[in-house]
Amino acid sequence: MKILAQIVIILSLTLGTIYATSDTDGTEFVTSFLYKNAPDPQNFEFSLYFLPTTNTTTSVTYQYWSIINSQMVKTTFAAKYKDSNKHIFAYNDVITDGHYSDGQPKNMTDPRIYITSTAPIKVIARVVNLVTKQGDMYLVPSTLFASTKFLFKLPEPVLGKEQVVHLLALPNRDVNAQVIVTGPQGHNLVNQTVKLNGALGGNQITLPITTIDIGPSIYISSDKPIIVIGAVICANLNTFNVNAPSSNNTCDYAAYFPQQIGTWDCTS
């Protein structure tokens, strides 16, 4: 995992020099960390890397609702070019546990981390269990990635493990969103309209799912652009393996930002 982290950071720094205007670069980001009911929360590290894409020191500010302190926390620092600029968050300060994994949308304490910078940066998120080494590292897109329509499926989890989805409003933009969850046989499991509070510290929506199969399809439609993040706590690494499992390590954590549904002109 350490080697992978170094590779991702070095690659991002290199790409940042060449492609300074890629979709992941920006000056405004909304993200969150996704996990659920970890038996060993003290072993987890949640971190963000802030990588300036131009040869300059950039002022970066991030804000989030601290569960430990029950208040907004605001941090501003100087992000140096070609440094990792790593910031670490505690499990019990950014993760709200206790939601039933029944596949129904639920209000949750604001998990958003709102990031702004004075010049374009890349943001990389990392979730890792420092003991088991299970985890994931992924690019956080800028708020330009926000959209109003999403359709996606999450990777298959190991039996009894959760899939988790966060619906996040952009700051100060209240949102109404329709969530439709469809089972593998095509029947609706959920068809519900939910509200997202745009105010920093306001409730957002989580969709915790425990499945015994490949998992449902999730369709989200909102009246204003939102950010959607999905994660699988224990993704089944042997899903497509028709032979015997290749190792005793049969699952790993996985997270990503589902892409918006594209639109095409089908009449011309």
Number of strands: 15
SSE topology string:
HEEEEEHEEEEEEEEEE
Terminal CA distance reads 49 Å
Strand content: over 45%
Can you give the helix content as a percent range? under 10%
C-alpha-based Rg, rounded:
18 Å
The coarse silhouette is: globular
Number of helices: 2
Q: What is the total domain count?
A: 1
**Major sheet size, sense and barrel closure:** 8 strands, antiparallel
Instruction: Quickly give the structural class.
Output: mainly beta
Give the overall average pLDDT. 88
| Low-pLDDT runs | 1-11, 13-21
Account of the protein in words:
The protein has 268 residues and is mainly beta. The chain has one domain. Helices cover 8% and strands 48% of the residues. It has two helices and 15 strands. The chain has helices at residues 2-18, 91-94; strands at 26-31, 44-52, 58-66, 71-79, 86-89, 106-108, 113-129, 135-140, 147-153, 162-169, 175-182, 188-196, 204-210, 217-236, 251-256. The strands form two sheets. Strands 6, 9, 10, 11, 12, 13, 14 and 15 form an eight-stranded antiparallel β-sheet that branches. Mean pLDDT is 88; it is low at 1-11 and 13-21. Residues 1-20 form the signal peptide. This is IgGFc_binding domain-containing protein. Keywords: Signal.
